[in-house]
Amino acid sequence: MVDTAPSTSSKTSESATQPAAHTPGTVDSAPTPTRSAAGTPAPAPSPATVAAAQAAAPKVDVAALSRQLLGTWADLRLVARERAAHPDLQRIEGQSMEEHRERVLQQLKILVEHGAVHRAFPTSLGGHDDHGGNIAAFEELVLADPSLQIKSGVQWGLFGAAVLHLGTEYHHQTFLPDIMTLEVPGAFAMTETGHGSDVAAIGTTATYDEVTQEFVINTPFRGAWKDYLGNAALHGTAAVVFAQLITKGVNHGVHAFYVPLRDADGGFLPGIGGEDDGLKGGLNGIDNGRLHFSDVRVPRVNLLNRYGDVGEDGTYSSPIASSGRRFFTMLGTLVQGRVSLDGAATSAAAMALTIAITYGNQRRQFTAGSDTDEEVLLDYQRHQRRLIPKLATTYAQIFAHDEFLVKFDEVFSGKADTDDDRQDLETIAAALKPLSTWHALETLQEAREASGGAGFLAENRIVGLRQDLDVYVTFEGDNNVLLQLVAKRLLTDYSKQFANADAGVMARYVVQQTADRAYHGTGLRRLAQTIADFGSTARSVAELRDTNTQRELLTDRVEAMIGDIAGRLREARKLPKSDAAAVFNRNQNELIEAARAHAELLQWEAFTRALEHTTDAGTKQVLTWVRDLFGLGLMEKHLAWYLINGRLSPQRAQAVTAYIDRLIERLRPHAQDLVDAFGYRPEHLRAKIASGAEQERQDEARAYYAAQRAAGTLPVPEKSKK
Question: H or E segment at 272?
């Protein structure tokens, strides 16, 4: 396998050959916008000014930027990409569900043969104890086939990881070797038909029998069946089953048990039954299914007992006294699913943008500015508005994800493994995964539409990715539920700062927004900004480019929203439970919006830190424009809040949109370089419209008409005769 930066030589970029009127490419002080900050028409620059600006325009060092985007585990990602480029691991469009399932199972065996899935497991068992590197490599499987990525994640990232992180040495030695080699394909049996995100309320029970020293597992009603489980319909021969642990008549909450499912012939063991979930909206290479249990007995030692154990006499013990804290600690060890979904969704968005922007940079339509040549789609402002802001968000997500992955590795390697570190990691995971998975769906849909009918063809990948990524917003927790968890954490942090404050103190804080910041940042950083007067109309549009101004505007929105909600919820603690729940429910939507604003701020901060590590001057300038587009795009999206709350005047609000248009115009000549820097080769994209075929068609057509004009054989249009 090649361990070098991916080549981008196969891509065709027209940015250097577009007409000057459509590729301003100016430095930040050049007079490029068509409208002034106030929205009034600005004079067009002279040809000499345009030429000078183009000569001074920054250039992107694509190779260096590509390496930076690969992140902390760049070399492992490159090796994984070489693997994902192999046809044996790639999806074959048009296969039946049965064929696709069998192909993906065989692909898992190929991964085992290449030692590609064991990095996170203990060195004593042939692994590398490399948790961050494992996830980085695993995420690249989405390039080959999302079904392969997710089925691999079920086997080693959920089933195997549960045994690793919830079990003890006995379980590691007894079960992990066969899990690692795929001798035992397994399911992760947590979700139930009746309970998905609310894991604490699952109905499956595991009751200890002191006489036989066994746990008896039951799904006592239909809603308690385990559902939507990868590997459950066909291939799984064992499962980690989550159930309410009951001993001596006491329910000690949800725990995990290793449970054999099938015999050597593939039939269910006594007491176990199941169904195939059948054809899904996507990811049909995975055999999702349902499981149910009737008096299924497993030995006492099959309890994965790192955080809770039952003695032979039925006595329960745990190193964590609080049942609530114990539950969240157990679930927190499985956070890597959200980490990998954040990365894989971001990769899918990057692939879609590479396809759509490459196509848009080659496909021509309408003779808007020429009597002979049609315009490249990406030269149209609307086309730029559709794709380039999404490119900016994807860049922000890439940089945020790498920091997220570093945090994950520090926690799971033990470098930073305090309770606070784990809580911060869980909060970041719950914040970033929703944004990246939603963004992937929005980007895939926009890329599909921007590619016209060609984007609807399966051969161009976008529709298949859109189908497969759809369920990512539900995997590992519904996105809205996850953001609610983030909001609760923000409120908890806020309340700690004002535990003994009276109403007057709280009101003054909310109104004045003092410099003592209540919110501590939950993981990526701490805030220490003093909020200034955002409503001043005297500030010039230039201040919108200022890093501190953007930070203050984005930060203030998070803190003001949390402060306002905290003030409304403060008295709810004194109300009866039902009344308090009603108060919370009335504020639920705003809580989720505040959490989303927090996640957006984390992404912006990560992007800003990445700029500090960009050494090439031209690349740094272009990336700064991309960061500004992301930050100002967030403000534009939430302009109603900024106006209603007096953070921006109407004139300043207009300036935000005007400057966004200016930034997009500047970034247009660099769009191809920015997607080429993702490093995806044709064998990764596997989209004909991004292969150069469209450029060949356009060149052929233009040459044909040019030859006709030169020979004088081109028919005269009817209009010209009139």
Answer: strand 272-276
The β-bridge relationship of strands 186-189 and 238-247 is parallel
DSSP 152-170: HIIIIIIIHHHHHHHS-HH
The predicted model gives 647-675 an average pLDDT of: 92
**Burial bucket for residue 1 (CB in 10 Å: 0-12, 13-18, 19+):** exposed
Band (694; pLDDT cuts 50, 70, 90): confident
Instruction: Work out the pLDDT band at 606, boundaries 50, 70, 90.
Output: very high
Residue 43: what are its φ and ψ, rounded to 5°?
A: -65, 145
| Separation CA 356–CA 361 (nearest Å) | 8
- Show the tokens assigned to 475: 């995997």
* Per-residue CA distances from 422 to 334, 407, 544, 595 (Å): 11, 9, 36, 18
pLDDT of residue 641: 94
Q: Which two tokens stand for residue 712?
A: 């004088």
d(CA 150, CA 155): 9
pLDDT digits (tens, 9 = 90+) for 619-632: 999 999 999 999 99
N- to C-terminal Cα distance for the chain? 65
| pLDDT of amino acid 722 | 60
Q: Which residues contact 319 (CB under 8 A, 6 or more apart)?
A: 307
Euclidean distance between CA atoms 274 and 193, whole angstroms: 13
Mean pLDDT score, 243-263? 97
Phi-psi sector, 683: left (phi>0), alpha (psi -120 to 50), beta: alpha
Q: What is the pLDDT of residues 144-162, one digit of tens each?
A: 999 999 999 999 999 999 9
* pLDDT confidence of residue 566: 87
Give the three-class secondary structure for 566.
helix
Closest CA to 454 of 513, 377, 549, 525: 377
Quote the tokens at residue 27.
């430095």
Closest CA to 77 of 126, 11, 144, 4: 4
> Residue 38 is encoded by which pair of tokens?
């106030």
Write down the mean pLDDT value for the chain: 87
CB neighbour list of residue 384: distance below 8 Å, 6 or more residues apart: 378, 664, 665, 667, 668, 671
Residue closest to 398 by CA, chosen among 340, 347, 439, 443: 347
For the cut 90, the answer to whether the pLDDT of residue 45 exceeds it is no
Separation CA 364–CA 377 (nearest Å): 6
- Take residue 187 and report the two structure tokens written for it: 């399911």
SS3 267: coil
Q: What is the pLDDT of residues 167-179, one digit of tens each?
A: 999 999 999 999 9
Helix residue spans in 451-537 (DSSP H): 452-455, 462-469, 479-497, 503-512
Residue type, 583: V
CB 300 within 8 A of CB 159: no
Residue 499 DSSP class = T
Query: What's the rounded mean pLDDT across residues 124-139?
Result: 95
Separation of alpha carbons 678 and 689, rounded Å: 17
Q: Is 345 exposed, middle or buried (0-12, 13-18, 19+ CB in 10 A)?
A: buried
Report DSSP state, residue 275. Answer: E
* Residue 605 pLDDT > 90: yes
The closest of 156, 189, 200, 199 to 289, measured between CA atoms, is: 189
